[in-house]
UniProtKB/TrEMBL annotation:
PROSITE patterns membership: ABC_TM1, ABC_TRANSPORTER_1, ABC_TRANSPORTER_2
Organism for this UniProt entry: Actinospica durhamensis
Protein's name according to its UniProt entry: Dipeptide/oligopeptide/nickel ABC transporter permease/ATP-binding protein
Keyword vocabulary terms for this entry: ATP-binding, Cell membrane, Membrane, Nucleotide-binding, Transmembrane, Transmembrane helix, Transport
SMART domains membership: AAA (SM00382)
GO MF entries: ATP binding; ATP hydrolysis activity
Lineage, broadest ranks: Bacteria, Bacillati, Actinomycetota, Actinomycetes, Catenulisporales
Amino acid sequence: MRAPSPRSPLRAVLRNPLGAGSAAVLLLVLAAVLLAPVLRPGGAQSSNILDAYDGAAAGHPFGFDGAGRDELAMLLYGGRATLGEAGLALLIALILGLPLGLCAGYFAGRFDAVGSWAVNLVMALPGMVVLLAARAVLGPTTVVLMVVLGVLIAPSFFRLARGVAADLRGELFIDAARVAGLPAWRILTRHVLVAVRAPVLIQASLVAGVAIGMQAALGFLGISTGVSAPSWGGMLSDAYTSIYTHPILMLWPGLALGLTTAALLLLAVALRDALEDRPGQASARRTRRPEPVRVVPTPAAAAGPARAAARSPLLSIRGLTVAYAGPQGAEREVVHGVDLDVRPGEVLGLVGESGSGKTQTALSVLGLLPLGGRITGGSVLIDGAETVGADERALRRLRGGVVGYVPQEPMSNLDPCFTIGSQLAEPLRAVLGLGRREAAARVLDLLRAVEIADPARVARSYPHEISGGMAQRVLIAGAVSCEPRLLVADEPTTALDVSVQAEILDLLRRLQQDQNLGLLLVTHNLGVVADLCDRVAVMRAGAIVETGEARQILHAPEHEHTRALLDAVLDDAPVRAPWQARPTRSVA
Ligand SMILES: Nc1ncnc2c1ncn2[C@@H]1O[C@H](COP(=O)(O)OP(=O)(O)OP(=O)(O)O)[C@@H](O)[C@H]1O
C-alpha cells in the first residue's frame, strides 16, 4: 500500500508549465500595477502636448498617447482601476452566490425554492440594460456599476455550488458526518466546499475575465469615470479615435487585457488539474496521546441481557410510520406503526426480507431519511428525548455523543478527499471539543481499539489506500469515538468479504460488551442473529410481526413469516460459532 503524498496544490501548479507560465504573467501584471506609484511616481496624468503620438523614447518604452501622456504610466495606473474594479465585481459575486448556492443545495426545500426563484429572476434581466439603467440612476461611478455587475453574475456561482451541494447531500459520507454530530456549517465548509472549490476556481477565472472585459467596455463606451481616471478601457477608447493613424496605441491596452484574461483562465485550468489530481489535504500529524483509550467492562455488561432488560430503554420507538412522496404527490407508507426498544447493553437484531423496512426504521432513528421520505407518525425516544419533529440542533446533540452509526458501505461513507486521521478527528473536535493534538492522539488510540496494527500509517492514509475491512474498522472507530451509548449498525458486514465479516462482527460484539452499548443491528443474516443478538424483532412489509428473545425466536418462532425466514436458511449453510470473548489482537 502506497503512503499518501500530501503535495500542496500550489507546488503542483508550479510544476505544471502552463500553471507556472500563467502564474508568472499574472504576478508580473499584478506587481507592475501595484508598484505603479514606485515605477511612475509622477502619476499618469502629467502630459506634454508636444509629445503627442511620439514613439518610444528613453524612459518611455511605449511612447505617448494623443494627449502627450506616457503610455506606460497610463497602463500601470489604468490597470489598478481595471483589475481592482473587476476584482470587486468578482468578490461580490462570490460572496453572494457561493454561500447561498451551498445552502440551497444542502438544505433544499424552501431555502432552495426561494433562492432558485431569486436567481432565475436575476438571470432573466438583460445585463447591459441593467448596467445602463444603474448608470443613469446611480451616476457614472464604475465602482457602483461593478457592484451591480457582481450581483448580476452571482447566479453563476449560485448554480454551480447548488448543483455540487445537492449531489453531495445524498452521499453517505455526508450522512456519516451528520451522524457524527457535526453541525451543518462544518459539513458545508469542510466536505462540500472542498468538492466545489475546483469548479469554483474555473468559474472565478471566467468571471474575472468577464468582469475585466465589462469594466473595460464601460470605460471604452465612456459611461464610467474612466474619462478622467485612466483605465484600460478608457485607453482603448482614446486609441480608437486615432486607429488609422496610430494603431500601435490600441496594442498596449489590448495586450494587457488579452494577456491578463488568458493567464487567469490558464492558471485556473492548471489549478483545477492540481486539485483534482490530489486525493486530499495534508495528513494528520503524528502525536503521542498522554493516555490510552480504556474500555472498562461495566458491571451492567457483565450482568447480561436479563439485567439490561430491567433498565429503561435507550431507544424506544412507538407507532413509527414512514412515508415517501409518490409521483402524483400522494404519499406511500413504507413503515407501518413499528414498536421497538433497545436497552443499555442489549443487542436487538432487526431482521426481515429485503424491502421489509429495516433500513427505513434505522434511518428514522438517526433522522437521516433520504429526500422525499418523512416520519409521518409515532415517536422515537433516544435516551428519553423525543427526536420526531426535533430541530437539527437537538438531533445534533444526540448524534455522535449518544447514538453512533455503523453503515453498510464502508467506502462510500468515507470522504475520499481527506485522510482517515483527519476524518476521525473531525467529530472529536466538534462534539468533544478536543484540540488538534489531543484529537490526533485519540485517533491513534481509537484505531488501536478497533485492532488496526499500524494506526499511524492508517491515520495518514486516504480511503482508497485501505481495504474494505479496514475501512469498516475505521467507521466503527468513528461510531464509538464520541463514546455513544447506543449504536445503530445497518448490515455492517454485507459489503465485505466473507473472511472479514466474522472479524468485524467479533469486533462489534467486543466493543458492545466492553462499553455496555445498546446495539440496534439491522441484518438479514440469521446466523448473525444467533451469534450476537439478545433479542430479535422480525419485520415484514413495513411492520414488526414478532419480537422476542433470540433463543425463543430461533428455536420456537410463533409467526409463520419467522418460520419461513428460518426455513429459507440453507440446511448446510455455515453457522457462526457463538461469540466468545478473546484477547485483543491486531490486524494490518
Ligand atoms: N428513497 C426511497 N423512495 C421511495 N421508497 C423507498 C426509498 N427507499 C426505500 N423505499 C421503500 O421502502 C421500503 C423499505 O425499504 P428498506 O430499505 O427499509 O428495506 P430493507 O428491509 O432495509 O431492505 P434491504 O435489506 O434490501 O436493505 C421498500 O419498499 C422500498 O421500496
